[in-house]
Amino acid sequence: MKRIAVLTSGGDAPGMNAAIRSVVRVGIAEGLEVYGVEQGYAGLIAGRFVPMTVRSVGGIIGLGGTVLGSARCPEFRTEEGRRKAIEQMQAHGIDGLVVIGGGGSQTGSLLLHRMGFPVAGVASTIDNDLYGFDLTLGVDTALNTALESLDRIRSTASSHHRAFLVEVMGRDCGYLALMTALAGGAEVVVVPEVDVDPDAVARELREAYERGKSHAIVVVAEGARYNAAAMAEHFRERRDEVGFELRMTVLGHVQRGGTPTAFDRLLGTRAGAMAVKLLVEGRHGHIAGWLEGKVQALPLEEVVGKKRPLEPDLLSLAEVLAQ
Ligand code: ATP
């Protein structure tokens, strides 16, 4: 292997830049030429390759987002799109690709691998929905960001004796919501993995109100059947059942931005380095991520297409702690 490329794809995640930096510098140290691909798979199909040097990744380790840009690319879902991507890489003499991204991006990467192109992945998404790994790149920062917002919301909720519906990201995975609720001391958590009846949520809020709580926080995952807006709408005509006056905050993209935590910088750095080694050592079609207290590689075939389960113990713990 002489020349590799690296791209970031799907939703950006804090720590992606640390991973890019690591891929570039470790790749060069391994005697490879490294190219960056702009705008994910869209850039791959369009041949947007930029030669990277040790200097071109200087000063980025602490930056949120991704200096290469990211995109969602419908064309890459087609076989023709993926063939074009491989042709572009072959035309540029690229013989290995590192894909930094989440479940969708790694599905695309696996399909390239099945077409015979050498790939390696870095498990990266704030949703933490990748099967097989304990933590993906960006989750730690997103969780800390959500918590900081929750703490701020709690102080205003308490002053006004209000209940707040706080919606966090995570797509179909309730991990971020559950951990935000646990670490933030929320009264109720609503996740997609459990079909929650909004009237049951209303009852829990009412009970909290009657117990004399000065506020109540409901953390709602964006992918839940009743997201924050749907829940607020449901409660609009039922204020008496809830007890508290109700407000809603959707945290949205603030959770994706910002300076990566020490954990995400280190995870990006170590997983990026491992991805390069996987390519160099011929362990193609693997993905690096955080598992059982260290960075490990798993075959993409084992990771892609499966749903990451939510720890049921932690759900019951959140309920017990919300007294
Ligand atoms: P995140 O969940 O953090 O947003 P992700 O990588 O899961 O990250 P997606 O939007 O699901 O984000 O996927 C990113 C890109 O990966 C898509 O725009 C598409 O180009 C490619 N992709 C996704 N699913 C597939 C698929 N089934 N086959 C081929 N390519 C895919």
TrEMBL record:
Its main location: cytoplasm. It catalyses: beta-D-fructose 6-phosphate + ATP = beta-D-fructose 1,6-bisphosphate + ADP + H(+). Pathway: Carbohydrate degradation; glycolysis; D-glyceraldehyde 3-phosphate and glycerone phosphate from D-glucose: step 3/4. It is found in: Cytoplasm. Its EC number is 2.7.1.11. The keyword Metal-binding applies. Catalyzes the phosphorylation of D-fructose 6-phosphate to fructose 1,6-bisphosphate by ATP, the first committing step of glycolysis. Belongs to the phosphofructokinase type A (PFKA) family. ATP-dependent PFK group I subfamily. Prokaryotic clade 'B1' sub-subfamily. This is ATP-dependent 6-phosphofructokinase. The gene is pfkA.
